Amino acid sequence: MLLDRRTFTAGSAALLSGCATVGTRTHLRTCTPLHPVDVDPGLVIRTVAGLRPYRRSGFVVRAEALGDKRLVHNYGHGGGGITLSWGSSKLATELGLQGHSGPIAVLGAGVMGLSTARLVQEAGFPVTIYAAALPPDTTSNIAGGQFHPFAVFRERFATPEFKAQFTRALDYSWRRFQIMVGDDYGIRWLPTYVETDTPEAKLLDTFPPFDRLLSTAEHPFPVASVLRYDTMYVETGRYLRQMIRDVQIAGGKIEVRRFAAPADLAALPEALIFNCTGLGSRELFGDQELQPVRGQLAILEPQPEVRYAYTGSSGYMFPRADGILLGGTFEFDTWDATPQPADIARILADHKRFFSSFRCTA
Ligand SMILES: Cc1cc2nc3c(=O)[nH]c(=O)nc-3n(C[C@H](O)[C@H](O)[C@H](O)COP(=O)(O)OP(=O)(O)OC[C@H]3O[C@@H](n4cnc5c(N)ncnc54)[C@H](O)[C@@H]3O)c2cc1C
Questions:
Q1: CB-side exposure of 36: number of CA atoms within 13 Å?
Q2: Which of 72, 173, 82, 98 lies closest to 135, judged by CA?
Q3: How many CB atoms neighbour CB 174 within 10 A?
Q4: 50-64 pLDDT, tens per residue?
Q5: All residues at 6 or more sequence positions from 130 whose CB lies less than 8 Å from its CB, including other chains
Q6: In the chain, what are the helix, strand and coil shares in percent, each to the nearest 5?
Q7: Which alpha helices (DSSP H) does the chain contain, by range?
Q8: Best residue among 46, 54, 59, 77 to mutate for probing ligand 1, ranked by most atoms within 8 Å of CB
Q9: What is the pTM of this model?
Q10: How many angstroms does the Cα of residue 151 sit away from the middle of ligand 1?
């Protein structure tokens, strides 16, 4: 089930009562290999909020005619758009490029538009990206960047055809991100710990990363059950900057332009158009199933000694070179993309409590 990070709904996962917590971080550093995060309002360097482009039946990859043009949709990836970007764009380009010749338009310069543009270029076509906003002003820049398809669809609304599309997209993305690991794209592997209230269930049935249930002695976290797996983390600001460079180095053009209605697209010189406008597709193409799911983050000064990620009932913590990300909220149908001080205070307080309750494991 891919709507919820399992642990997010595990609000009831009890803190282990009576487990031996240790009072000082200095002492903790010597008795567990996992450094607790230093959580303090004074360490917050910024707060952000973004709107996930969510569809309960899953993301759209579909072709249609638009006058004498061909339009291929590639939008609606919820909380898993970074993860799915290469794979979903691969499916979209397979659909659109067959039998095509001539230049191509891509609408949108978030992660989906940029990956689509790169795949179009790799297939040998000239491309122009048209977008109302460019990085750093896209939802993609807000993303935590964990490779995990979180909150992409709701099981009971997804068709078997969608699930096949989802698995194919995930598979291609998984392999594509691996060959981009390193400082130039800001991608790295990290051990990832996940609080669980259903330890018997696998994180993802058909797909790596494979997880393992840890014994209490194997982790310092003050929770009952913890899974561990390895996955990739994308420093989204750096990644998107590099993707823009890649598009431009390969001769791609980028034009800032907002389209108000499908009729506006008729004036474009390109006969093939990829729609990667994310949440913008609701207004532009009238997709009423698409809805915003707000997520808020508090970002702390970088703490390079923290080299693992954690997700649980306290929220999630992703350590990146540009800061420690503390999340997160999941607020349906909320259009206001500004951080709410009360929510941020709660995120900080929950994480402070969590990281000051580590147990010794050595
Ligand atoms: C707090 C938070 C945390 C997240 N964490 C993760 C994570 O850890 N891992 C993960 O995989 N995903 C994560 N996501 C989800 C991810 O950010 C999105 O799924 C993804 O960014 C969607 O990308 P996109 O390119 O479709 O949309 P966007 O990044 O929103 O880009 C859309 C583009 O289309 C343009 N556009 C829109 N309307 C129009 C128009 N009418 N005319 C012209 N241009 C238009 C915009 O200007 C923009 O350039 C997170 C999201 C949030 C909010």
A1: 29
A2: 82
A3: 20
A4: 999 999 999 999 999
A5: 105, 106, 107, 255, 257, 259, 268
A6: 30, 25, 40
A7: 25-31, 81-97, 111-122, 139-142, 160-178, 236-249, 281-285, 341-355
A8: 77
A9: 0.93
A10: 14
